[in-house]
Structures are given as structure tokens and as C-alpha cells.
Amino acid sequence: MPRRTPRTVLDRLRTPRRFPKFLKSASVCVLIAGLLSPLSQAAAIAAPSAAASNDYCGGQCSDILPPGENGNATLVEILLNQAFGTQPGHAEDQLAPYGNLAKGYSGLTDAKINDFFNDASFGVASDQVASTTKPRSDVTIVRDKKTGVPHITGTTRYGTEFGAGYAAAQDRLWLMDVFRHVGRGQLTSFAGGAPSNQGLEQEFWRNAPYTEADLQAQIDNATAQAGERGKQALADADAYIAGINAYIDASDSGRYFPGEYVLTGHKDSITNAGTIDHFKLTDLVALASVIGALFGSGGGGEVNNALSLLAAQSKYGVVEGTKVWESFRQRNDPEAVLTVHDGESFPYAVKPADAQGQALPDAGSVTREPLVYDRTGSAGTAAATGASTTAAKTSVSSAKRGMSNALVVSGKHTASGHPIAVFGPQTGYFAPQLLMLQEIQGPGLSARGASFAGLSMYVELGRGQDYSWSATTSGQDIIDTYAVELCQDDYHYLYHGTCTAMDKVERTNSWKPTVADGTAAGSYRMQVYRTEYGPVEYRATVGGKKVAYTTLRSSFMHEADSIIGFQMLNDPDYVKSPQTFQSAVQHINYTFNWFYADSSHTAYYNSGDNPVRATGVDADFPVWAQPAYEWRNWDAATNTAQYTPASEHPNSVDQDYYISWNNKQAKDYAAAPWGEGSVHRGNLLEDRVEKLVSAGGVTRSALVKAMADAALADLRAEDVLPKLLKVINSSTVTDPAAAAAVSKLSAWVTAGAKRTETSAGSHTYADADAIRVLDAWWPLLVKAEFEPVLGSDLYAAFTGSIPVDEAPSAGHGPTGSHAGSSFQYGWWSYVDKDIRAVLGESVQGGLTQKYCGSGSLGACRDALINTLKEAAGKTAAQVYPGDDQCSAGDQWCADSIVQRTLGGIKHGKISWQNRPTYQQVVEYTSHR
Fold first, then answer.
1. Residue pLDDT, tens place only, 340-384
2. What CA–CA distance (Å, rounded) separates 90 from 704?
């Protein structure tokens, strides 16, 4: 049975399967004709829009966000899409330019950049105005002809934010509704009980099991602590909500609301019966909790770390086992690529000399805390329970996947003398997209860029009048695991010496089949026990004592706090320099790397509320829930603590260049995920940008080409395969099958080690056989290299902390398969260091022993050749088994990027690229 990609919300919606046959072809037209009676949206008004005078980019700012700006579709439009493949206006007009860069970048010039990107200048030329909407007298929403992006201009602050809410609902109402339910753990009751929906709500609600009172408390606390800016943020949010609700009312009465409301049973297409619930402020916090958990909450994984450490100590003894474990953990690898590469040290979460308070579990005692109870109907199927298992594993992992890259070059090394940046977030591919584009101009607001749908009262990633900014996920550890000692029963624990009851939070969901999701009726109850030290994730014994392992996140109950930082980034009177930019992002508690460029300067800052840990606490392992091991000045009532000062966060101004692809930030700055070693996908950017900077005269097109070239590179083939071939070719390869495979692999390396089509649209890779062989070989060679020495138990434990591979055709947690992002986590550094050691080459921060062939070059070579022959014998159908998107053996399709449907509109596949979803190319010519 082929492996199936998880489906979310309306991914199951296909006319031939879900709709009766009479709805096809001509009969669909009859149905559509009957549905065309609803009033249309506000008609276009021929209103001129002068070029903006507050734009200092000189026409050299560009951006792109596939598939398109329009993420809403009426029932008519959905039916047309399902039956004939037609697209609503501006639903996918950014998909082709985005996809075409994969084969078009080699001949790129500055003049051709906007063949693949949008012009991101402020304003809309009068002859490019497609429509003008005035939802209030004090705000105007102009949409351009090319992309339909809303350009919101207000004469009052309230009107401006009202317009932002109205435009957001125009473009993403259904998606916003989906994710406010995800954040509350209520997706299945809203959109259907598909196993993927079950997994999605479980994954996020486990990390943020908030009550309605918790959500409101976040609003109250965030605004109260931020003074006048807090009051302004609350007023902005109120206006934004009012704009959303105004559109809901208008679209409901005009009957042009998203058709998904009909297909999921919330509205009746004939009588218009049913309701679309108004949004409220707490919905924004629910949305923020999802985005924060997905992209900005580094840490976790301490229990898995403890289990793999115990496995190492069991095999090698405590002292040697700990050394082996640390060599694989690579907390501070001297060969790791760095974002701040000038040698400055920023110590954080480093290994203490004498660890205190560790609470390692007794062998075999750890069990994961159940989340789901009382399953009925389809909630009890194997698919449903499998989705729950995957969600539970993903939610507690330290390996947050697929998040963003940045290339920023100082003006000292550019042709113009002005800095250049190519950067953006890698947030997966969805239809509609999680992000949306907008321009917002009003009192105290001047920005264009991307924001998460439903949180777009401010631009979150984009440009101001004379500066641009972006972010990548950083992953430093702001989550700790505490062992709370149980007392009385399994639901009471010792808190500062007092036996205290855990707080039980529950959510009961039920669903029934709809047109959109035919999953049979079912229900379940989700249950989380919360303590002062956070939600319970595991149960175990430590030294024979029963404990619950809890996870405490510094941003827990504080997702709303970051609104102030984003408000500052949109304020032209606040951000005027690298220093004021760094000051703004210091108010963001999500774990991000932030980058900045204006006409003269570049800057970097790593954000997040990094708790100051007690002396001797090792952030990598669980510690006892006792006052001596708590965060410094921790207040359980507010979940606040002492945080490291801004100067101790990795930061920099005007370094020669910056690169980031979720790699190590700076010397001595440890991250929670494993894998920051000698080979990282950040090296793909580092090598290319360093070469450009060394040559000088960098242009925008040259930097885009460097990004695009890295986006097609196979990290394993570029940085590790040459060393593997060196071992194999240390003597003549006599086996014909092995020799043929070596020849193909060598030719691929010589050609550049890219996963790229033979020609645009061919859907066939150049060097297809070599790619197939490496995809099959990598997991085989890693196992043959390491398992004989480590033993099966320790090898399995280490693979539980970091996967062996992350090829383009692999799944990627919440962003799913066909997600583009690849090569973030894998064993490439271990293979690289070990093979170099076997070859007798110099290795800094090496492993504690040689693994391949137990250190014998000949035995290592034999292991590599044997596994290579096995890999070469695997057919394409075995390597690429197929899924609900692709036939078995279709290599290109297995890698391809799919816009995962979160609504009723579907889009075509594009060829694989490993690049940001939303991306900017900027070079400012002047400054205020």
C-alpha cells in the first residue's frame, strides 16, 4: 500500500470522488448559474494612486509569496476549480514566477529580477489600480492589477487598522477561521475529523493548552506591561477585529463569503442559513500560539536526550558513554558554520563543569503522557491513532523543521556600495498560504510585506520606508523539562514542599461527515494536566520516586507579548538605524534570528526570552522541580523570570556578510536541536556568499543566484559524497555494479550535485540515476558505518534525537511532505567527521572513535561498496514508493513542492527548491 501524505482540512475535496457525477461538466455550469445570484463584492473604482514619496528603495525592492494573494474562494469558484481547474483571480499568479526561478536563475540580471519577483515599491501607479474599496471613510484599500496585493492607506490610526482587518478577511477569512480553531484545539469540530485534522489540533494544543481565561489574561498582561505602546496595540487590535467582522457581515449578507463554509456545513448555499462567528481578541492569541509553537519556540527534547545518554552510558560506562554522547550532541562544534563569524563569543546553555539537579529517569520507566481519551467512531481507527502518535512525537521534539534563510552583504562588498539582502521565512507551502502580503500606510505605520493571516495588524516580515527586515528560526533553548515529584496520587505533586493538585484542562471534540470531509462520525476528549512548571509530557521514576516530567517554556502564557516588537518595526518614527531595529526586535520573545538592511548598514539580532538558569543546571537534561534549580527570579504566577540581557544575545552590526539557514548563531551559543556540526545546510550559503564577497562587486542578481543555486543543491552530494568516493577510490573498484554507480555519482558531483530538471518542465532530473542511488544509499551507508560499533540500542537512541536523513521526498513534521525544505537535520556531520578521520585527515571536534570499518580504511571501503551495490540495485519504485500525490517511481514528483490544501482551491506542483516561501530582494539607494 503506498504511503499517504497527511491531508488537512479540505485536502480530501476532489469533485470526481466527493461530488455526485451530475455535478460534472455541463451540469456544473447549471449549478453555478443558479449560484451567481449573490451580490458581488465592491466593484473596482477608477481611483488614481500616486507613486509613494516615502519610498527610499529606488525601485530595487522585490518580493514573492506563492501561490497568490487571494486565498478566499466562493462556492462557485471552488466548484469551477474542482471541475475544470480554473483559478480565482490572483489565487496562483505568483506560483509560476516563483517556480520558474529554478531553471531561470543562471542567466539572471538585475533587470530580470522582477521576472521572478514582484515589484515591492510602495504605492500603486494609477494605471495599475485594479480596484479601490473604502470600508470606512478614513481608509482606502487599493489592489494592484498584477498580484491583487492590498495597499491600505488610512487617514486615522483606527481606520488604517480597520482596513488591515478588512483586507485580511477579504484574502484569508477561511484560513484565519481554521487556525483560530487549531489554536483552541477545536479543528475537528469545525472542519471535520480527518486524521490529519486530528493530528494538527493535538500537536498544537498539547503545547499550548489554554483556556479562554488564559487567552484573555495574555491580552491584559501584555497591554498592561507595555505602557502607551500597549494601549496602542490594544486599540489597533480592536480596530483590526472590527474590520474582520465588518467583512464577515458584508460577505454574509452579500453571499460572497468563502465557499468552504458551505462545504463544511456552516452555511446553507440556498437559504444562507447558518452563521460565521465574529472574531474576538482572544482569537488573535490563539492564532499567535500556533505560529509561536510552529516557528518560534526553540527547545525541548530533554527527555529524549536523557534516554540517549543513558543508552550511551549503558554501553560504554558513565565516563566514556558521556564522552560518546557529547561527541554526537555537538553543542559547540568548532567546525560549525556561524552567522556571527567574527569570533565574538556569546555563551548560552553551555555544558556546566559540574551539573546540578539532574533528574535522569530510571531505565525503562519513561512513558509519554496520553493526550486523547474516550475515542468513539472514526477517532478509533488506525489512521487516527497513528496521527496522534506522530503529533505527540513532533510536539515534544527539539527539532523544529524547515524555517527560513538569509543572505545579507555589506555595502563594502557590493557594486553599488549599498547593502544587499535576499531573505525570507521558509514556512511550507499551503493553499491558501499561511502568510499574506499587504502594504499598510497610516499614522505611525508605514510598511509592506508578509504577515501571518489573522495577525496582520502589522507587517511582520518586510520593508519600511528605508529599511527591510526578515527572520529565520533560531532554536536556542527557552524550554526546560522539570521532574515534579508526585505525592498522594498521580495527579498531585510537590510544589515548594506542599502537595499540590495538578490543573486538568480538557477539550471534547466531535464531528460528522460533510461534503468537504467524508470522515465518519467520531469524537474524543483531549486532556492535559498542568503544573506550575508547565504541562505534563511524560511519567517516569527517578531513583525509584514517581515523577511527572513537565515542559516550561519562557513564552508560555506570553504569546501576545511580541506584538510590541512588531508594532515598532512598522513605525517609521522608531526604526531609523541598525540600533533602533535591534531595540525593536528585542521586544519579540519568539526564538528568531533577525536581519536588517538599509542603504548604508546591515545588522543582526537573535531574539527570545532566554531564561537565566541556576548555576550548574544543564539545559540539555531534565532537572528536579525544586527552588534551587528554577530559573532565576522565576514567578510561577506570571511565568516570568530573569532573562539574559540583550548584549548577551548574538548580535552584530555591519559584519562583512551574514548567512543563516537555521545554523549555529555564534561561538559558544548552544541550540536545542542536534546537528550543528561540520556539515550543515548553512554551508551551502556560506560557501557561495563568501566566494562572492571575496571577489567583490556583489549585485542583487548575483546574490539571488547564490541563493537559487544553493536551493537546488543536495547537501550530501556537495559536501560529503566526495569524501565517500575518496574512500571507495582508494583502490580500484572491480565490481561492475559498484563501478557503474561510482561513475554516475562522480559525474553528478562534477556537474554540481544539483537536483534539477533536464530542462524547464521536463519533470525529469538530470543525473536521475545518481540521485536515485544516493537517496537509496545514504540510510544504508549510515547504518553500516555506525551501528556495528554503537550497537543497535544506542544507534536507535541517537536516531531518535536526530534523523539520519532529510531528503526532499521526506516528510517534514507539521509542514508535511512535498514541503521544499530539506537537509536541515541528518547525520551528514557525523559521516563527514568519521570518514575524514578514517582517511587520516585533520578533524576538529571529532567523534571519540572511528566508526566506519572500526577505523580500518579497507573495512570501511568494503562497507561502503557493499551498501552502494545494494542501493544501486533498488528500483525507482522502491526508492520513491509513491503517495496520494505521486505514482511509485516518479522521482521528480516525489521531490516536488505541493501547495497543501487548507481550503477548496487546488494548485499544480512545482519543481523542488529549498528556499524561503516568502522572499525579499532589497537594495536601498538612500535614507531619510
1. 999 999 999 999 999 999 999 999 999 999 999 999 999 999 988
2. 25
The answer on pLDDT for 7 being more than 50 is no
Closest CA to 781 of 831, 745, 855, 837: 831
Length of the chain in residues, anyone? Answer: 928
List beta partners, residue 511: 522
Which segments of 334-396 does DSSP mark as H helices, in order?
Answer: 382-395
Q: Name the nearest CA neighbour of 439 among 156, 142, 233.
A: 142
Q: What is the pTM of this model?
A: 0.94
CA atoms in the 13 A half-sphere facing the CB of 362: 11
Residue 56 has pLDDT above 60, yes or no: yes
Locate 809 and state its grid cell. Answer: 521526498
CB atoms within 10 A of CB 518: 14
Residues of the chain with pLDDT > 90, as a percent, come to 88
Going by their DSSP bridges, the two strands 623-624 and 479-487 should be labelled as parallel
Sign of CA dihedral 656, 660, 663, 669: positive
Integer Cα distance of 253 and 247 in angstroms:
10
E strand segments, 835-896? none
At 292 the pLDDT is 80
Model confidence at 919: pLDDT above 70: yes
Which SS3 state, helix, strand or coil, does residue 846 take? coil
Write the single-letter amino acid at 53: S
Percent helix, strand and coil across the chain, each rounded to 5?
Answer: 40, 20, 40
Distance of alpha carbon 301 from alpha carbon 561, whole angstroms: 25
Place of cell 506542599: 498
**pLDDT at residue 75 tops 90:** yes
Q: Name the residue among 467, 458, 411, 414 with its Cα closest to residue 120.
A: 467
